[in-house]
């Protein structure tokens, strides 16, 4: 003991913290007391001195030393970012120290530098007893750290998960908030969000099945509107997803951007979760705000299993476009997902076709025309649309039955494929098939073709869907150049491109625009081919070399092996010319005029109405549907995006958003064929004008795709069949042969724009413009007849007025004259009626305007329909002008082809201009008829007004005469009424009357006359004077009242 004291005394002036710490570590209270005393002696005793010892005691679980220091007044709480003794004891799991500190006033809400309380630390360290002690001592279970997380947040967000379920159960028995404003952290997440994000299924289950306290909301959203289900899917927690679905989590809730649970699962590629969500009823076609579907996300991310899972669902819509016009197929192609490109290809999804869609595909025939080295210069093939788009090879089911791109054919230079209906689904399937056959490398070019469908006009009615007239070109990356770019550079270098004309090699003139267009797609093609192709460079070069040799495109020196090929090219120089690579695709939409029978149009309209109302006849009691009916039912019934563009009448073309059913039944040509002069001819089937659409895509230099509709139940022998007419023009020996794909395009547009060419047709039944001229001639003749009738009625009215004016003079002489005038007037009217025979009286002719209004309506209808036809022709002018410019830009520098194309385009424009001139001439004729009828109605109105004024004057004169006659009768009545009254008074036998002396009862005449005439005339004259003066007094009185009113008004003013 003496040694210890001497040691302490010798070191009195040294720092005492080390001794203090050793004393605390040995839990030696006596030594601790000596150190404290020494510290007091030399001035080292302070709160900080005690805190150092207390921290060591709490850290090493030294009860005695800790209690001694607390007795000396050691502070249990610290300021600043330093760790408190309580937190140190909690971290070291010393329950007795914690209890001791709490007994000495330690605050359970003390926090560390992250804002975590002792309760959070005890729970996180899995110190159950300390946690229970803190809860019992009133620790705030809803306290939050600097991230605004409470204890359950921290446990759920912990990735190590070193704590047990007992801790969570203990906390859930308290009032700890798990939802609402108090249950959300800085990110707006609840403990359930964090449990789902970190994969703590048991924790999430305990939160969802909390026995007491606030109940967790399974659909609570965080700051980005994500639910727990979204977070669980995003982190691939399929077990938690199943748990949330069992607790009825909202499967269709949307986060920011419109993301659903299925979107997250498809984007991450979790096939199991996708199946869970689909089984639970997730909407498979839901779209983000950008229009992206789950299939879009799975396709672009390359999740093959997820795509296959989605394709198993029959309600999947594979062709939905996002806001950028991209389909899932195009997304897969953009991101080089070749396996998914094949999965989404239409020919690999035949099962997705409905019964009606497949029946329509099998019922309609597509046409393939190959141009090249054939016996008749071309080969025409007919096959079903189904076989073209979806058919498989009978010998090798892995291969397609038809190859659309003619590159592998040795004899085919270019190909024309025609689809018999304006069906976007068919066209997309065909273009997609071509894109895949070309290697799916030119994504930008294909996207340009897909973008062309965005020019569709959409409306509320079925006939409101049509393509806006346009013609545009999109860049195309040459496939051969992009596949073997390095080889080309080594062989060709910077040499200008060469073409073969008449067996001689010539250089193409340099063009700045052409060189730029050639470079740009070339660069893109290189990038796509290198990253997408699975073949090595040697194989690609070998294929390129072989194909170049076979096709005769090698710009190098001719060798012995291909000398024969060069010699054979002499008679096919134009075809060799069109084989030069072109870096543009051309897309064109153009309306053109056609016809349909009235019966066929009525059947088509009834089929459309049944499809719109889903009112289909039962299969057992009715006939089997035709191919036209199946096509309409497949693409119009219960479809959110209409892909079929039906044929439109002339009025439906011009008024796309109104119901034109009544107008369609009253076309000018229809009325001409069923009424008037047209009825005298024998019309088997009355016809009406229709406006069809020509869709055309020129794909490079060897493929052209067209689509235009055919008539309802297309008859075999149709003189105006557009397809047969084009094939006839191609095979015609009197026309220039079709040498390139652009010649073929001009031939197709020429036939469509000249269907009703008046100089081409010879059948009177189809001369619709002649029907318009005949209708105008009939209207002109009717206008002449009506004007002549008006002149005759006007002359009759003038004659009647003259006769009536002469006879009225006799009327003033005597009543006998009036009677004679009336008889004469009646005789004139009778004579007029007998003279006219069947014609009505002139008064009726002047007042009846029914025929004029009918003719006015006829002229208006003619002008309206001529304006509609003019609009169609003007659209054709603009589209063909654009096609001409595009063709010239593509073949800039090729003077021969450009000259031929210019000549053909001029012929087309000349034909359309001639039709427009005819339309304008007929419109002016109809306008003159309209103006003449308007003038005639105006003349009738003016004549009726004059005649009515004359009748009113005569009526007023007659009324005056009648008034005078009444006045005479009134005067006579006034005079004789008193006389008769007095005379009747004297007939009464009264005793007061004077009698004669002889007793005679008769009164004396003088007596009676004196009273009768005296009183009678006196009263009559007084009454007459009053009646005469009464009107004058009334006028004078009204005049005085008016003067008084004016004076009052002026005074007030």
From TrEMBL:
The chain crosses the membrane at residues 966-988. It is a multi-pass membrane protein. This is Uncharacterized protein. ANK repeats lie at residues 81-113, 114-146, 187-208, 224-256, 257-289, 290-313. Its main location: membrane. Residues 505-514 have a biased composition (Polar residues). It comes from Aspergillus tanneri. Residues 457-575 are annotated as: Disordered. Residues 524-538 have a biased composition (Basic and acidic residues).
């Amino acid at each position: 003991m003496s040694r210890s004291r001497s040691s302490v005394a010798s070191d009195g002036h040294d720092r005492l913290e080390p001794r203090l710490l050793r004393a605390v570590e040995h839990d030696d209270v006596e030594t601790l007391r000596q150190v404290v005393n020494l510290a007091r002696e030399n001035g080292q005793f302070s709160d900080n001195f005690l805190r150092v010892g207390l921290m060591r005691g709490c850290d090493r679980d030294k009860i005695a030393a800790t209690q001694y220091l607390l007795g000396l007044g050691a502070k249990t709480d610290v300021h600043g970012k330093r760790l408190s003794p309580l937190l140190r004891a909690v971290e070291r799991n010393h329950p007795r120290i914690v209890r001791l500190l709490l007994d000495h006033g330690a605050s359970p809400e003390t926090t560390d530098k992250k804002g975590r309380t002792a309760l959070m630390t005890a729970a996180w360290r899995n110190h159950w007893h300390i946690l229970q002690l803190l809860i019992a001592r009133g620790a705030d279970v809803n306290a939050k750290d600097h991230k605004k997380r409470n204890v359950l947040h921290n446990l759920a967000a912990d990735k190590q998960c070193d704590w047990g379920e007992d801790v969570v159960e203990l906390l859930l028995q308290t009032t700890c908030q798990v939802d609402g404003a108090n249950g959300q952290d800085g990110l707006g997440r609840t403990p359930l969000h964090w449990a789902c994000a970190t994969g703590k299924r048991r924790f999430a289950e305990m939160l969802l099945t909390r026995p007491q306290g606030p109940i967790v909301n399974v659909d609570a959203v965080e700051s980005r509107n994500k639910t727990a289900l979204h977070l669980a899917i995003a982190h691939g927690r399929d077990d938690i997803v199943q748990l949330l679905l069992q607790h009825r989590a909202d499967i269709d809730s949307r986060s920011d951007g419109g993301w659903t649970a299925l979107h997250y699962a498809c984007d991450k590629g979790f096939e199991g979760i996708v199946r869970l969500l689909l089984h639970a009823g997730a909407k498979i076609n839901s779209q983000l705000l950008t229009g992206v579907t789950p299939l879009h996300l799975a396709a672009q991310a390359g999740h093959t299993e997820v795509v296959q899972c989605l394709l198993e669902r029959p309600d999947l819509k594979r062709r939905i476009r996002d806001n950028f016009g991209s389909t899932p197929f195009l997304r897969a192609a953009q991101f080089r997902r070749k396996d998914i490109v094949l999965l989404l290809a239409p020919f690999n999804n035949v099962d997705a076709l409905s019964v009606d869609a497949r029946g329509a595909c099998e019922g309609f025939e597509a046409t393939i025309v190959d141009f090249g080295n054939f016996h008749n210069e071309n080969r025409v093939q007919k096959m079903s649309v189904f076989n073209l788009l979806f058919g498989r090879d009978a010998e090798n089911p892995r291969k397609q039955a038809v190859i659309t791109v003619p590159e592998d054919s040795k004899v085919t230079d270019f190909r024309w494929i025609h689809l018999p209906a304006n069906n976007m689904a068919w066209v997309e399937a065909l273009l997609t098939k071509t894109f895949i056959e070309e290697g799916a490398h030119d994504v930008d070019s294909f996207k340009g073709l897909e973008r062309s469908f965005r020019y569709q006009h959409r409306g509320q009615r079925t006939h409101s869907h049509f393509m806006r007239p346009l013609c545009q070109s999109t860049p195309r990356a040459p496939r051969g150049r992009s596949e073997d770019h390095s080889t080309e550079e080594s062989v060709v270098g910077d040499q200008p491109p060469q073409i073969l004309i008449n067996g001689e090699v010539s250089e193409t003139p340099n063009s700045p625009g052409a060189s730029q267009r050639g470079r740009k797609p070339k660069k893109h093609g290189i990038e796509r081919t290198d990253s997408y192709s699975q073949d090595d460079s040697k194989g690609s070069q070998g294929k390129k070399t072989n194909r170049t040799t076979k096709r005769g495109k090698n710009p190098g020196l001719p060798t012995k092996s291909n000398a024969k090929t060069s010699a054979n090219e002499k008679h096919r120089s134009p075809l060799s010319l069109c084989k030069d690579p072109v870096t543009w695709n051309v897309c064109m939409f153009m309306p053109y005029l056609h016809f349909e029978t009235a019966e066929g149009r009525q059947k088509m309209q009834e089929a459309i109405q049944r499809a719109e109302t889903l009112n289909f006849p039962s299969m057992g009691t009715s006939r089997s549907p035709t191919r036209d009916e199946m096509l309409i039912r497949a693409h119009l019934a219960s479809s959110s995006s209409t892909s079929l563009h039906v044929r439109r009448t002339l009025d439906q073309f011009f008024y796309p958003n109104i119901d034109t059913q009544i107008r369609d039944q009253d076309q000018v040509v229809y009325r001409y064929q069923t009424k008037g002069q047209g009825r005298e001819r024998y019309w088997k089937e009355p016809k009406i004008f229709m406006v069809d659409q020509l869709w055309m895509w020129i794909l490079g230099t060897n493929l052209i795709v067209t689509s235009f509709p055919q008539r309802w139940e297309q008859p075999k022998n149709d003189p105006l069949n557009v397809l047969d007419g084009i094939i006839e023009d191609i095979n015609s020996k009197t026309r220039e042969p079709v040498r390139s794909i652009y010649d073929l395009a001009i031939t197709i547009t020429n036939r469509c724009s000249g269907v009703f060419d008046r100089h081409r047709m010879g059948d009177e039944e189809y001369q619709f413009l002649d029907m318009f001229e005949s209708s105008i001639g009939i209207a002109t003749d009717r206008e002449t007849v009506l004007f002549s009738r008006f002149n005759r009625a006007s002359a009759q009215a003038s004659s009647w007025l003259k006769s009536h004016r002469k006879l009225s003079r006799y009327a003033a002489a005597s009543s006998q004259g009036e009677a004679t005038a009336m008889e004469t007037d009646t005789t004139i009217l009778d004579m007029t009626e007998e003279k006219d025979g069947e014609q009505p009286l002139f008064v009726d002719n002047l007042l009846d305007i029914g025929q004029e209004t009918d003719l006015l309506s006829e002229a208006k209808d003619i002008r309206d329909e001529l304006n509609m036809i003019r609009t169609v022709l003007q659209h054709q002018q603009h589209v063909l002008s654009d096609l001409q410019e595009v063709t010239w830009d593509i073949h800039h520098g090729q003077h021969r082809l450009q000259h031929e194309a210019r000549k053909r385009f001029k012929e087309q424009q000349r034909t359309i201009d001639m039709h427009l001139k005819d339309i304008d001439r007929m419109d002016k004729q109809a306008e003159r008829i309209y103006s003449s009828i308007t003038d005639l109605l105006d003349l009738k109105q003016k004549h009726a007004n004059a005649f009515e004024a004359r009748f009113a004057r005569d009526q007023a004169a007659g009324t005056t005469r009648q008034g005078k006659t009444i006045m005479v009768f009134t005067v006579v009545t006034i005079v004789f009424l008193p006389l008769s009254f007095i005379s009747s008074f004297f007939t009464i036998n009264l005793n007061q009357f004077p009698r004669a002396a002889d007793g005679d009862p008769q009164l004396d005449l003088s007596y009676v006359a004196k009273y009768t005439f005296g009183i009678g005339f006196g009263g009559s004259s007084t009454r007459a004077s009053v009646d005469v003066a009464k009107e004058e007094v009334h006028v004078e009185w009204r005049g005085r009242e008016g003067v008084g009113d004016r004076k009052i008004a002026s005074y007030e003013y």
